[in-house]
Write a structure and sequence with these properties.
Elements (H helix, E strand, L loop, with lengths): L25 E2 L11 H13 L9 H15 L8 E4 L2 H12 L5 E6 L4 H7 L4 E6 L1 E3 L2 E3 L2 H8 L4 E7 L11 H13 L3 E5 L20 H5 L1 E5 L2 H4 L7 E4 L3 H14 L8 H11 L1 H25 L4 E2 L7 E5 L10 H9 L1 E2 L1 E2 L9 E5 L4 H23 L1
Parallel strand pairs: 1-13, 3-4, 3-7, 7-8, 8-9
Antiparallel strand pairs: 2-10, 5-6, 9-10, 11-12, 12-15, 14-15
Helix pairs in contact: 1-10, 2-10, 3-4, 3-9, 11-13, 12-13
Length: 390
Amino acid sequence: MHNIFDKQIDRRNTGSLKWNVADEELPMWVADMDFETAPEIMEAIRKRAEHGVYGYTVLGEEWYGAYQSWWRERHGFAIQKEWLLFCTGIIPAISSIVRKMTTVGENILVMSPVYNHFFSSILNNGRNALESLLKYENGVYAIDFADLEEKLADPQTSMLILCNPHNPIGKIWDRETLERIGELCLRHHVLVLSDEIHCDLTKPGLGYTPFASISEQCRDNSITCVAPTKTFNLAGIQTAAVIVSDPVLRHRVKRGFATDEVGEPNVFAAEAAVAAFTRGGRWLDELNAYIWENRTYAEQYIETEIKGIRAVKGEATYLLWIDCSEVVGDPVGFCEFIRTNSGLYLSDGRAYRNGDGFLRINLACPRALVEDGMGRLKRSIEAYRDRICG
């Protein structure tokens, strides 16, 4: 039976960032999917578009209710309406919150390797990016809690940006780990900013734990960023939400959004989010099953067909983190070599810090493209090995 996610859609010449490449190249880098969004979302957008008037837009009760019901039913977390603030995207939200909640010259702590735009939001706003390096042993990542606490205890550290689930390693932080992070942040008076955009892209049968659901103390010492954009392939719609339970923090975040002009929805932003969270559940379940079949295929292919590299086992996201450290001597130019050799465009692990010798590959595409990508990766790794071995 033909799977709806097997459908190949030509995205060239559509203004796509991902597919703005040469004809012979295969882009598997930036984190958007090559799948059509859920039919229910397309229907909602078409209906709104047919109205023909696209003026200034306000949020209706259904927008708040959609987020509340989704997080209650899918993730067991009760969100009050007043905790929700609209934002045009998670990175605009993070950058605005960094500006409003911290001071120039302060430390903002991240656990690397981690999503590269966190560093942009920190450094572009004159703050210091302080890293606690995740420990990598026998193909598994873990937090170095001694190092984390030492850096949280620094009087100049005022915020921790948490990635939950963690991009690029695909790890779901369990409740015990989140509790420990929360306790340390409370002890050292560090605010937690939790990016949870990948929370619905999990291995079938697994869920994630919202950081704010751990305890009242964690909830009130945190700001959580969520969105339907990664899950339902809606990045271009520019729609997200921020959850802030503490009224003082919420007031400051809201004022920051107003100052930065990132708190007003476009005409499709609410429609898309409401349709996703009220009618997109079945589509998402099918998507996650398909992505995990892609991941299983890629992991097995790498294990059996490509000598010297290994796929890091993940539990979330559609991004596969690949350890090429045994093959790579100097990581500078490695990713570019692959692109030049085979046309396979991947993300260089160095962009995420603490990722030298790693690659990130996007598996959210039809299986035929995954198979093509794996074949290209194999050829490039073999050519690279021949090159360095002389």
